[in-house]
Amino acid sequence: MTPLSLATKTLSPFLLPTDKKCYYPRTHSFPSNGHRQTERGHDFETGDSFFRSESAIGRDLGILAASLYKKSEGSLRVLDALCGCGIRSLRYLVEAEADFVCANDANDEYRRIVVSNLSQVPRVLMGGERRWVVTHFDANRLMAEFYLQRDFFDLIDIDSFGSDSSFLRSAFNALKLGGLLYVTSTDGYSSGGHRPDQHYGFISYCTLCGNSEAFSWDELGQITCPCNNQKVSGSLIVSGPLWTGPLHNAAYIKEMLNLTEQWGWAGNGRGTDLEKLLEQMVDESDPQLPFGYIKLDEVLMQICLSSFRSLIR
């Protein structure tokens, strides 16, 4: 094994598995294969890596949260655990002004692309501290190594294909207390919680009358519907446990919204998708907001059907 240090200020070495490579780029350029994209003014190459331009808003949210953290805490170390082509890492360096970014992807065939994209930012500062490194390890194994060496990050970004649940334990271990864990997933289900006393409950839906109600853990086994005279009925469908509390921190989302306006990403009546999303998230933060939502198309369909039946009669 070869001792390597990925820290920016602490130079204590730690051992990384040697079946994959940790790459410190030299000062040379690589030929492009022509797969180029532009996002928020950054020109970058995607090559054969998985990249969705439609996910730009998701990347925007991560950058906004990281920037607010940097302004609040004064420093920002980021682990981009599944970096793909490295656009998230590049944006953390440039827009969130991260002090250090570790861009990791298990596929070492992406090395040329990631290094080429990140080379837009100087790798080493005047004092000799590294701004970024590129590694190619299994994400869980890398985060476990960071944890064992007590080398923690302010923000860990996990953008997985499929379920993100297999990464959560390792990510929390490698995260600083009070740090940010930014999790997104493509083609996967949202991770659930396991603390029934913290805003988790059950939602019932009656297929006969359409009534929905929320029930606590203590009420399990006593779930009924008013249309059945408070008797247990086969018409009830119960889902859960589900999060029934506020969806977001309103004050934090408003800070992100203000930052989008400062950066020119929103405002001036343009109503960008990012601005609309953040405003919706503010509305969803209301603790008095009832659970669920109403599908207006289904309501209108029922109204039309009822009116049609009345005409027939």
Q: H/E order of the elements?
A: EEEEEHEHEHEHEHEEEEHHH
Strand order of the largest sheet: 3-8-7-6-9-10
Task: Give helix % range.
Answer: 25-40%
Instruction: Estimate the strand proportion.
Output: 15-25%
What is the CA-atom radius of gyration, in angstroms?
24 Å
Going by helix content, strand content and strand pairing, the class is alpha/beta
For the sheet with most strands, the description reads:
6 strands, mixed
Shape: elongated
Mean pLDDT: 80
Number of strands: 13
Unreliable stretches (pLDDT < 50, length at least 5) are 1-34, 187-194
Termini separation = 84 Å
Our count of helices gives: 8
What does this structure look like?
By secondary structure, the chain is α/β, with parallel strands linked by helices. It contains eight helices and 13 strands. It has helices at residues 56-73, 87-94, 111-118, 139-148, 165-173, 250-262, 273-284, 296-312, and strands at residues 3-4, 14-15, 22-23, 36-39, 42-45, 77-80, 100-104, 132-135, 153-161, 175-186, 200-206, 212-215, 236-243. A six-stranded mixed sheet has the order 3-8-7-6-9-10. Strands 12-11-13 form a three-stranded antiparallel sheet, with no helix packed on it. The protein has a two-stranded antiparallel sheet with strand order 1-2. The radius of gyration is 24 Å and the shape is elongated. The N and C termini lie far apart (84 Å). Mean pLDDT is 80; it is low at 1-34 and 187-194.
